[in-house]
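Q: Here's a chain of 376 amino acids. Please give me its 3D structure as tokens.
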Amino acid sequence: MKVMIACGGTGGHLFPGLAVAEVLRERRHQVRLFVSEKAVDQTALAALTDSSDPSARIAVEVVPAVGYEGSRRLIRFCIRLAKATRGCAAVCDEFGPDVVLGMGGFTSAPAMLGARWFGKRGTATLIHESNAVPGKANRWTSRFVDHVAVGLADCARFFGRRHVTVTGTPIRAALRGGKVADARARLGLQANRLTVLVAGGSQGAHAINEAMTCALPWLGGRTERVQFVHLTGALDEQFVRESYEKTGFTGKVMSFCNQMELAYSAADVVVARSGASTLTEIAAFGLPAILIPYPQAASNHQWHNARVFERAGAARLLDPSQFSDLHAERGERLAQVITELLDDETGRARMADAARLLAVDDAAERLAGLLEQYGQ
């Protein structure tokens, strides 16, 4: 079976797509990816495309960015969409996929259109939506695809009478192997200290980076008891590292981490955005979370994602307005919640159990099985 997966643009689209690709390749299917030109895609894919072992490589096609920017730029959007669709159609014509999967985002729509309208006769099309509220691309393409898969049951209602299957959100094999026993040592951390992981998503989050640096002075009496793993994104790495040094905290600061199994394994508590892929990984590792949704996310979907975890008792949900540049006490509030969780071992254990109940360990296999139903 030949499968094309459109999964670029953000880590939340890319990594679940890679997880499905891993399973399909294990099952001896041919896989090709549509990704974006963005740095996050190229960084994450470097190990695959640069491998010296040809059998470990996955063929990759780059789709130019196509984002809807409002009615004033509708003509520009249509021209760019048409160009991207033609490019995807040409790849479909050359590769001849049996089934095409879109993971949402701006790479998904042209791939779905190219396969549906210009692909070989009988090519099946499916989309997967990870969030509690679907994005624009998936809302639109759901009207003409063969099947819709969702990560959260809450999302199914948005697709009306379409064929919908709740698969969970796929995560990569490296994140499904359980905690890495020597993760702290491999990250250069102390084995006996409580550890907080701060992660703003695949590209970092400036507001969370600033909030955490503002919180450090409020945690000042804990420099010998608490340490941090902080994923900043490329722009903030230096100032965040300097903040830990100035306040005396041990902080493993990285712009990007391609071994997230170590970061999650080292952590006792996670401070994070609430993208679906991040939450899926948090659940897989059974970690108590402090969630600060990205306020500009389409349809406020990160807040809805976080509410699923809050209702389950797996997370504390903080109002993102408390961490804006205009909010003077943002550091104090974050430090307060971190302190409450670190001081409550029993509460952390309850939250961890609740998080594990939200995990779907075989989501990649479920989605791969669905593709096999339609593609063979």
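Q: Can you summarize the key feature?
A: Confidence is low (pLDDT under 50) at residues 49-55.
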